[in-house]
Amino acid sequence: MRKKSVSYILEKLDQIYGVTKEGFYHQQPWQLLAAIMLSAQSTDKQVEEVLPQLFQRFQTVEQMAEAPLEEIEDSIRSIGLYKNKARNLKKCCRQIAEEYGGQVPRDIDGVLNLAGVGRKTATLFLADAYGIPGVTVDTHVFRISKRLGWASGKNPAEVELELQTILPKDHWNRINFQLIYHGRAICTARKAKCGECMLREWCEQIMDKDGKGDKEIS
Questions:
Q1: Residues designated as active site
Q2: 96 CB-contact burial (10 Å; exposed 0-12 / middle 13-18 / buried 19+)
Q3: Any binding-site annotation on 187?
Q4: Per-residue pLDDT tens for 131-160?
């Protein structure tokens, strides 16, 4: 039953949200990593608005690494936590330039070694930049996976390992954006719209199966 339900849910997610997601504006891998770093606690729209000007101003990873911190801050001022992000961007680019010959590493440990990069950012980058399979667990994936009964881990790292055993490997890279879309539109954090959810019959936290109205779940 578990295998059947997972297959059904993944098929529905593919149908509704698609199997590919347009990535952030970039021409080089280090630029994609920078964009993902900037997206933390910010909207994709906010990030996309600053990227063209940012990468026009700093066209190579070396230029970003050597730029005065104030210039980087000025370029991303409209993004939340811009001072901290500018500082991490500069440090990260310096590492890429000095320790990795200007190329972003292709392994999880190498990417995690970079300043300002956590596991979620690293996994998402490797998937989007190099096509390396990985399950990226953000707040939406964490919440919905537990509601569906796919995971019971207490932290993202535990949930990541659980999802890797449940999901087919060819779905790892897209489960993140699919559940982000689903989490924003339907399975929201405070009050899920269970009556509108196409996954409701497979959700372990929905007790009311008659489809009458919304039901708060956590």
A1: 120, 138
A2: buried
A3: yes
A4: 899 999 999 999 999 999 999 999 999 999
